[in-house]
Amino acid sequence: MSDEQRLPGRLNTSVAHNARVWNYWIGGRDNYEVDQRVGEHVASMFPVIRDIARADREFLGRAVRFLAEERGVRQFLDIGTGLPTAQNTHEIAQQVAPESRIVYVDNDPVVLLHARTLLTGTHEGVTDYIDADVHDPDSVLEQAARTLDFTRPVAVMMLGVLNFVLDTGKARDIVRRTMAAVPSGSFLVLTHPTSDADLGGEGQIPAMRFWNENATPPITARNRADVTAFFKGLELLGPGLVSCSHWRADSDSPVVVPQFGAVAVKP
Q: What is the pTM of this model?
């Protein structure tokens, strides 16, 4: 059975979904009226959410380019990729090194329908998409191993995805098991929303409460200590765990957003 034949039972356009609302916030068109309505309400409660969405996307670009150009990474495992937009992981990596191999992971049916957009990489490299869930890292790794060589360094991208794993212990276990499967010299690239006051995150709490009552999947914020714990056993690269808008940003630093961002290497 094809993906298109399976999707009608999985696609629910009556409830707002994160991938589509996020797409709406960054100016995309792959969303429905319910996504726009919920997205607007969240933005009215927490106006900085659009800044967060843009900053997260810009962080991705800087991180991928840094790893490809300065660290020589040629393999990327992008878990929870969301809907494709401009300058996706494979486009940035393959601009630097056309032979780069990228595997995207998501379980949203709308993303799956757009997979053909993601699958347009260079002839020298490989760009693949797998339908899998971050909650099942063993399945993610098993499928990704068909494309990636886990004896060579891999950049594991977890941007705005662990916030959908509500149990912090489970989220830590997902990171631990995933990073255990990649060799020394691999990287973890991560962003995560926070309610910490020093990043202006207090407003996330009521906005997330509204989200969890009106959209899917449910979401949670975490404090600095909890996000730092995801990097246990890894070495954070400078500037460490910071607002994602400030990670290796230009000197004219943009607004601080309540979304942590960091890159760490596996020793």
A: 0.90
